[in-house]
Specification:
The chain folds into three domains: about 45 residues, no CATH class; about 190 residues, TIM Barrel (Alpha-Beta Barrel), CATH 3.20.20; about 80 residues, no CATH class. Helices cover about 25% and strands about 20% of the residues.
């Protein structure tokens, strides 16, 4: 199905039967020689749509819910965030308005997205309204109906969090109440692949998953499934320190300090995140009530207006201290310390 969308100053055509079928008007592209089609990457498309100093919510990472059918001890959401599930009927009109405001790329994550009672309806609604969707899942609850939905409305990618290929270990360590849990996850990964879905496996490398990583990588290699890992540990949403799960890293030579600034990335032009209560904020790493807005309470347009005003107030301002410019320190406001006055008003950001 072809959907014509007006995003900012441009009209784009989105084909929902393709994983990422986005087509621009010729006038939006740089002049090229001949009649050959121009292939654009995601960043190039976002750059065209978000040109100038305006803000459009073109990309979004949406945590549909903070619940899961696994009990991973290192999870920063489950057990550290308690929100009532936002049902599709409650947010449908707001979601439609967010799409009207420019939402084009959306990553659905959790918790575990597939156990949301309205996941399939939300996914289909996004696709049928011209949004390119990526899905993060643990793969356990994928069923025939969902695979068929992915066939007819393909996601740009499905990323499956793979923590063990051993049934007993998946049960004991990750709380999966199924003696064949790992086998079920692995078979679902292969089912996605056989269905022609772009499926990737990922593993958060930490002290819990490290005993399994070699077997996971070998399984993915033998089955020609792309795999990647990340060793960054995210602290609990409630402030819980999960640093004990981090793997030890070798000594690194000291880096010359860099000037740290607020929002040095493109978030200020087109980024956004939504939590399980359907509140929007600029970035998944910026967990501040100061820039989190309940779209059901104050509306989508007002939420975006306030979020943009917050970003414009702080963007490119220097963070007090000697920033090192790396993740985990005050390279932007996501890792910096908010400084407030006696009334609790946010003044600026500083090195922790």
């Amino acid at each position: 199905m072809e959907i014509i969308r007006k995003i900012g100053r441009h009209e784009v055509l989105v084909e929902s039967s393709e994983p990422c079928g986005i087509y621009f008007e010729e006038s939006a592209l740089e002049p090229t020689s001949g009649d050959a089609a121009v292939i654009l990457g995601k960043k190039e498309m976002l750059g065209i749509l978000a040109s100038g100093d305006d803000y459009l919510p073109l990309t979004c990472r949406w945590e549909l819910l903070d619940r899961c059918n696994f009990s991973c001890p290192f999870c920063y959401i489950v057990g550290h965030s308690f929100n009532k599930i936002a049902r599709f009927s409650e947010i449908k009109s707001h979601l439609a308005e967010l799409i009207e405001e420019g939402l084009l790329f959306c990553t659905l994550t959790g918790g575990e997205v597939t156990i949301h009672p309205d996941f399939k309806a939300i996914y289909q609604f996004l696709k049928e309204h011209g949004v390119v969707v990526e899905v993060f899942t643990n793969g356990y609850s994928i069923d025939d109906e969902l695979i068929e939905l992915f066939r007819s409305h393909p996601p740009i990618a499905v990323e499956v969090s793979l923590y063990s290929v051993d049934n007993e270990r998946l049960g004991k360590t990750y709380g999966v109440r199924d003696s064949q849990g790992a086998s079920r996850v692995l078979e679902n990964v292969l089912r996605l692949k056989r269905a022609g879905i772009n499926v990737t496996c990922k593993t958060f490398l930490n002290t819990v998953t490290s005993p399994d990583i070699k077997a996971i990588i070998l399984w993915c290699k033998n089955n020609e499934i792309e795999h990647y890992s990340s060793s960054e540990v995210t602290q609990g949403y409630d402030g819980a320190d999960l640093g004990s799960y981090a793997v030890k890293k070798g000594n690194h030579s000291a880096r010359e300090p860099k000037v740290a600034v607020c929002l040095p990335c493109k978030t200020k032009n087109y980024g956004s995140a939504i939590n399980a209560s359907f509140s929007i904020y600029p970035c998944p790493s910026i967990m501040l009530a100061d820039c989190t807005y309940d779209m059901r309470q104050i509306g989508v347009a007002e939420s975006l207006r306030r979020m943009k005003a917050f970003m414009r107030r702080f963007q490119d301002t220097e963070i007090v201290g000697s920033g090192c410019g790396t993740s985990g320190c005050a390279s932007c406001m996501a890792y910096a310390k908010p400084v407030r006055n006696e009334a609790g008003e946010l003044l600026h950001f500083a090195q922790p």
